[in-house]
Amino acid sequence: MIRVAALALVLGLGAGSAQAECRQALALALDVSGSVDAREYRLQMGGVAAALDDARVRDKLMAMPSAPVRLMIYEWSGPADQAIIIPWTTIDSEATLDGVIATLQATERRDATPGTALGVAMIEGARHLRQQAECWKRTLDISGDGKSNLGPRPREVKERVAASGITVNALVIGIDNPGMGDIRQSDIGELSSYFRAEVIVGPEAFVLTALGFADYARAMTEKLIRELDGLVLSRL
């Protein structure tokens, strides 16, 4: 919690930012369950940083200064194990975005329970997004490399999440290299179908896939571009 408080001070979060009009609240939920090893954790965290630093993503984030995007990022694993990495931050300048990227690059893996409580992660995301009710659009962007195995199933919470008026998109992470013996996910098509049926919410919700954590930065970049696209023109 110390790093969250410190980041809030560095980014200048205050009453002025909270009162700014907001075109989108975007919460990124990152899977740090037991199937994600130290190397994969680093690739995931670095992948989010690289995606936010991509020139196309930067352009979209900065496209409407009068109504900026608000961003938060949290990790999830077991039913009682979620942690905020980036608290709600108004992305209203290049310097603010640089601060978020630097924090992601410097974040070290904490001890986390090994379970995969995907339903709880969805509830947690919806809870955070309720804090941003005035934003034109509210999106939960959830990454995962496996099916839920603890806590309520995603199908059991999906209706409740949908009732909150948010969109839930998913980034499914497949196997890096079958030759490495990593068997946590042998069929990315099956996992994508699972997320499509049980996790995503909203008329424009979608699932993208990363062919392993080494492909995560590319997939996250594509996902952010798609999520941020069109809001400025549609509002005008």
TrEMBL record:
Residues 1-20 form the signal peptide. It comes from the Bacteria. PROSITE patterns: VWFA. The keyword Signal applies. Keywords: Signal. It comes from Sulfitobacter sediminis. The keyword Signal applies. This is DUF1194 domain-containing protein. Residues 25-228 form the VWFA domain.
